[in-house]
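Consider today's protein:

***
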Amino acid sequence: MVPSYIYNKTMKDGILAPNTVMGDIVPDLSIKEELDLMMGSIDKKDNANIAIWNLDGGKSVTVTTESPMMQQLLPNSLKYKGPLLSGAVATLGKTRTPYSLRLTTAKHASGTSINYILTMPLLPWEMSQLSYEFFEYTPTSSGEVKTKKIGEIPLSFTDIRMLHMFGATEKFIVVPLWNLMFTPESLTHVLYDMTHMCKSISFAYDKPFYLYVMSIQTGETYKFELPPARGVHLMNTFERINSKGEIELVMDAPTTSDVHELDLNKFCLFDVLKIPNMKDTEFLYKNMPWNTTLRRYVLNIDTMQYSIEDFPRNWLQLML
């Protein structure tokens, strides 16, 4: 465990510190703990789902969680060095509440890393407007980390899409906002629903699948509305110039042929990991997304047209 806020609080109290999880929480969170998770400061938002970065030229190993707060360890001994919070993210925390930072960062060909933070305004009358904010991290020759905000994608409280993985090309990032949604029952239930993720995740069959393309240099965004689709991970993203000299962004992602496989309005994502269900072949074959395909999306940002192509299916695509 990294000696972060959650680790230290867990050791001090003798129980696992409050943390937003997919599964059942026993004993359940108190209202105070729910408030800490939702509205607490940046330094309380670090969990143990860790990915390794090298952000300062080998002087330390940086571990990031699904949190705006990253931790640094000495590269040989892995002794804890201290937290890393970029100035740009710290400034953001003065006006907006940060909720999560993606551990599945996109590594750019230049050596920089790109990730995002889900945020909500601090002012109560503005809380219905959330956004995914994207940052580029560049290690400098002095061993420091330079952070630049690339841009943001606004979200409405009534249409909060779940973002897990995005892709980076030389000049653009490709951001799929699949039809998985956070759907709190109401503002009065938002504390409970947003800290008990199985209570608030659903599939929007009646809404489009949004694919965004964002310029790394300018932050300009291009929004595509496509048929509903289920997805989590990406296989590949790249940019190309077609025969007409137009810019196309290509994204390959595993998805289900039928969006109704594993109806998330009936089940929770966590349900498929419960041992009784894993042993129940009737549950698995009726409710698991075995019927997968690798789907290619081609986005033309000059004409704002798109095309969709499904590749032949194979069992390796069950990485979905």
In short: The chain is about 15% helix and 35% strand. Residues 67 and 100 are 5 Å apart (CA to CA). The two ends are 28 Å apart (CA to CA).
